[in-house]
Amino acid sequence: MKNLRIVLGLVCIGLFTISCNNDDSNEGETLAPLVGKWSISKVGTTSGGTETLIDAPQNQAGCSKDYMELKIDNTVIEGNYDSTIDPCALFTDTGIYSRSHNDLTKVVDGVTTVQDIVNLTLHELKLKDASGNIEVYIR
To answer: Which CATH number do you get for residue 49?
Structure first.
């Protein structure tokens, strides 16, 4: 009976050791999907290590929020609501995007933008460019 307990104990320890695999091959990568429609929520800057965010001034009161839609085929649609001519008129620009590790590169109307992906969750996408400008998007 004592030998059976020892054998069962060793088997349990062996199974526990096998099931606890510490695989760091995805270290630094996120599992949240980048593809989807993201509405701009906040903008800001980083200065001296301090981050300052405000509500996105480009969002017009009474209109839907401006957005960026990243599609699975690597196209990007940027939507801008503007009430200059008609109330809440939607203007869109289309381009392409790519992701390399934690960098998001977009080319829209011939303008290339490279931003670091600071945070990516199921509900928030936070981007920062080389100048320290920050954009926070939500789904």
So the answer is: 2.40.128.280
* CA 105 – CA 116 distance, rounded (Å): 9
Which domain does 65 fall in, by range? 34-138
Identify whether 42 is part of a domain: yes
C-alpha atoms less than 13 angstroms from C-alpha of 17 in its C-beta half-sphere = 6
131 domain residue, yes or no: yes
pTM exceeds 0.85 for this model: no
**String of DSSP letters for 84-130:** SSSTTEEEEEEEEEEEETTEEEEEETTEEEEEEEEEE-SSEEEEE-T
The model's confidence at residue 24, banded by pLDDT at 50, 70 and 90, is: very low
Q: Residue 95 domain-assigned?
A: yes
Give per-residue pLDDT as tens, 77-103. 999 999 998 999 999 999 999 999 899
